[in-house]
Amino acid sequence: MKTVDFFFDFSSPYSYLAATQLPALAARVGATIAYRPFVLFAVFKAAGNDMPAKIPTKGAYLFKDLDRWARHYGVPFRFSSHFPSNTIKAMRMVHVAAEQGKAEAFSQATFRAMWAEDRDIASPETLAELARGVGLDAEAALAAIETPAIKDRLRADTDEAITRGAFGAPAMFVGDELFWGNDRLHFVEEALKG
Predict the structure, then answer these.
(1) In the chain, fewer beta carbons within 10 Å around the N or the C end?
(2) Which of 11, 12, 15, 107 is catalytic?
(3) With bands split at pLDDT 50, 70 and 90, how would you rate the model's confidence at 49?
């Protein structure tokens, strides 16, 4: 079975948009999704890139474009009032959830919380609610995200994405092939079929 390595940061609205479409895409072609959080700021720094919202003309375009894509996909979207958000602990929590086979459920719930429900995913209370919502022991999960092993996993995913050529989010890999952006999902599907 083929796998899509889905590298993302919860702070990326385009990663949210891709996440709304990837499960159905994977089901159509019989593939699996590996949810791989990474630290987007570190990826930007390594690639000499910067967030589009920092460039006034790109930022103005981005707001319209995100609304357009959300309408196209038929998914809820509202630009987060918590942006830019410190998403490190939420991304570490993906690794905690993965240990119990719940990476997808937690990732999807957290994306919705940030980009559809305008919740503060940096808040320990919100993280605890999200963890409980997917069947995790919230207290144990919050403790686990502070452990060296979980911190190292997020660092390792970030380093791997950089080594493989990622320069922004979402970065999706089918084998060694990089597909960047939610607007490249048709190419991801082609690669999975090929």
Answers:
(1) N
(2) 12
(3) low
